[in-house]
Each structure stands twice: as C-alpha cells, then as structure tokens.
Amino acid sequence: xxxxxxxxxxxxxxxxxxxxxxxxxxxxxxxxxxxxxxxxxxxxxxxxxxxxxxxxxxxxxxxxxxxxxxxxxxxxxxxxxxxxxxxxxxxxxxxxxxxxxxxxxxxxxxxxxxxxxxxxxxxxxxxxxxxxxxxxxxxxxxxxxxxxxxxxxxxxxxxxxxxxxxxxxxxxxxxxxxxxxxxxxxxxxxxxxxxxxxxxxxxxxxxxxxxxxxxxxxxxxxxxxxxxxxxxxxxxxxxxxxxxxxxxxxxxxxxxxxxxxxxxxxxxxxxxxxxxxxxxxxxxxxxxxxxxx
Length: 293
Ligand code: PAF
What we know:
alpha/beta, Rossmann fold, 2 domains, six-stranded parallel sheet, 9 helices, binds pantoate
C-alpha cells in the first residue's frame, strides 16, 4: 500500500530555515512552490515539477495582501488550509510554510521590490501595484526558504518573467523553473478564481481559451495581428464577456508587442477578460496548431 508521509506545517522563518538548512547539510536539493492556497491541479503540477528537480519540496501558502488592489478579492480569496495541506501531502510535498501577515510584514516593514519594464503593461497597467506586491513577497519567500529551485506556473506568464528578471537583476542564487498551464477538460486554464464563476459564466469562460488558441493559429498562418485580435475581442464580448482588459501579441521573453508573426521569435498571445466581477487571464504560444489547416 502507498504510504503518504504527512508534511509538517511551519509558520515562522526560523522553523523554515532550520528545516531547509538540515536538508541542505544532508546534501539534498530543495525546491520551493509559492502559492496563495485555494489549491487545484495546477498547483499540484508545480509540486510535482518541483519533485522532479529536488529531493525536498516546500510549498508556501500565503494570501499576500500587498498584491491585491483596493477593490479586489482579498477578503473573498479562498482559504482552506486543511484541504490544501491534504492535497499537498498527496502530491509529495515535504514541508508546508504558512506564515501569517505579521511574520511576513512585521511592524515597520517599508521595503518594496519593483521590477520595471516587463511589469508596466498588461496586468501591470490594469492592476497598479500588483507586481510590486508579487515581486516583494516572492523575494522574501526566496530569501526565507533559500531553495535551489523555485517553480512558477506559465498561466501567470508576466509574473514568471518579472520574477526571472528580479532574480537575475539581484543575483539571487536560485534557479527559476516554470510549469505549463493546466486546463480543465474544456480548456479553461485552472485558477483559484474559477470557483467564483456561476454556472452560466462558467460556460462562457470556456470560450476564452478556444478563441485564444484559434487566434494564435490564424496569426501563425500569416493573418494580420491587429485584425485577428480585434475580431477575437468582438467575438468574446458577443459571447458574453463583460470586457477585455487587454488582448496582446508579445515577444515571450521581453514582453514587447509584436506586429507580425516571425517564426524565429518566440511569441505569445496574452488576454485578461472580465466576466461579472471575475477577471480571467490566459496566454498561449503563437504557433500553428492545425486548427485552421
Ligand atoms: O501566483 C501566485 O499564486 C502568487 O502571485 C505568488 C507567486 C504565490 C505570490 O504571492
């Protein structure tokens, strides 16, 4: 019978560091999977990706208040530590780090890590301060855990690129790895926020990824980008979306806009669309998928 060892939960930097230090002294590689809880299969795929790289896997659960805007869903964000811990145990996590807000931001905390350039457009333009909150907390988590690897999901591609930039710019001795977006059976990218969707919204939400993949395929077959993106936005609004915050074709590394398809340059389509109060994001590579062949 498969034996699952329960991971220990620690709540302080001291306990986290003591455990990680002992592992490293024993010669074990350590990987960190930062999360805000509300776990789903996408997070578990990050834990499994961490496992493939390192003998020891730490998952953090911290709903970071500084990355939520004033009118965003901080209070409503799903919190269920018992369920999350159960899922992490089954996925092979060794240690769960659950700091409270005063452990992360003690009295007098005034430092912000701000990555310029790659954070200014797309989600950065629509969620002022969001990426400062993300890079500050991720910098702290990396310093607190001191892992060899940290794993992030490709669904939050702009976040991933911003974190890579920070780690490079600040010479942090940590390898950042990414793991592909995990999708529901109808292609909707998994997200903790999908649970906010009512049944009718959930049906509409499934159209987002389909429109995105089809648009990427058209562009990769040579259709003009501006025309494809404008048709895609209109179709999504006609399908029931309440608004499109952005729909952009960009270079996948520097996140600069691209105005025509060049197979030599890795590029992606990025979208944020609103359904009621829920904001969904997704991104896909611009490549031929065979959808329009
Ligand atoms: O992607 C997330 O869940 C969060 O932005 C992260 C990286 C855990 C930082 O709070």
